[in-house]
Amino acid sequence: MTDAAASAPAVDPDETIALLQELVRIPSPYFEEAEISEFVFEWLAERGHDPHYHHVAEPDITEYEGDNVVARLEGSDDADDAPTLLLNAHVDTVKLVDAWEEDPCSGRIEDGKLYGQGACDMKGGLAAVMTAFDALADVELAGDVLLTAVVDEEGPYGLGTDRLIRDGYTDDCDAAVVTEPGPILAQSDLENPALLLGARGRFFYDIEVRGHAAHGSQPEKGVNAVVDAGRLAAAMDEMETGDHPKLGSGSVCPLKIDGGSQTLSVPERARLMVDRHVVVGETMAGARADAERIADELDLESDVEVGFREAPDPDIVYGPYVTDEDHPLVTALSDATRAVAGTDPAYGYFSSVGDFNYLGDRADLPTVILGPDGENIHGAGEFVYTDEVVEVADIVADAAVRFCG
Fold first, then answer.
1. Are the C-beta atoms of 202 and 276 separated by less than 8 Å?
2. CA atoms of 231 and 333, how far apart (whole Å)
3. How far apart are alpha carbons 154 and 365 in whole angstroms?
4. Is residue 75 in some structural domain?
5. Are residues 18 and 136 in the same domain?
6. What is the mean pLDDT of the chain?
7. pTM of the model
């Protein structure tokens, strides 16, 4: 650790926002990231950072293929005892929303706001880490800085960061910063600059309900799986969840019931999908047992089989995590915030899930979310505050010098 007040690299505000505009103007819904991955690669290559593509493939469920972009600034510490910092941002967005009243990839700037699908989630954060990484190349660091611009964070499985972990890219890292927008999805009301030091996790129930078919004019002779699935959904909506002093309470949200048809028959099968956000201490086995207990207490006539969403691998799970406020990365980011913004950062915790769960839980890295805020994420009219994009870039660059030495 070092006092970086005098040695923190300068981030060019105009270049940062120009980069953000270019990123937003490239449509990149998840599973369609080839163009933006190429742009990020070329931007880094033009600046001499020797990036490489890291291939991501999932042939069984999604048949997806794409490429992360990875670059490393190597530190000067030959003894390998200086820390390595991972900077992570995703290049994809949700699918383009139809309700936009302008080009969803316009990159229009008005009143300090830049508009476009993914502007806040999270091309603002992507632009910030790219320009911070570029600025850090002009500073001599003891430890390494690893930049990972990943695909498929918005998709069903977070395949880009999942593959980073599987292929060992996180093995030599000591901590991670993910530049997702933080305050807008925090557990409590926050304003930037804010450091989010953990996140709830998520399990996705996929429950099969099996009843007994009969003619629809005589429903009493059958067992209606759709009705029983509805009863189970209502009961699970009231399920007690865990509590955590930092992450708050868990939550349950029934999402979908499939079953039956227009034919005049009592539905014999239904499928219930339920989202469950969990806190530290709640496990998949416990979540399964909770749902099975509720089904037993309802004494349904249907048979109920509680499972979880199909995944490419059993360990693709969004586990909850918390990073210690005293960790050196948090100290570095707090000091950098004071140096850049002239104020103490707020501390908070994320209410939902993302690649940071994979890093904080599966990769066991102390992970902090720090990103520019905005509004309307995942929806029409999404925007990011341009001044916060620049501020995040400055804080990340300053903190990297403090953390990496």
1. yes
2. 48
3. 21
4. yes
5. yes
6. 95
7. 0.94
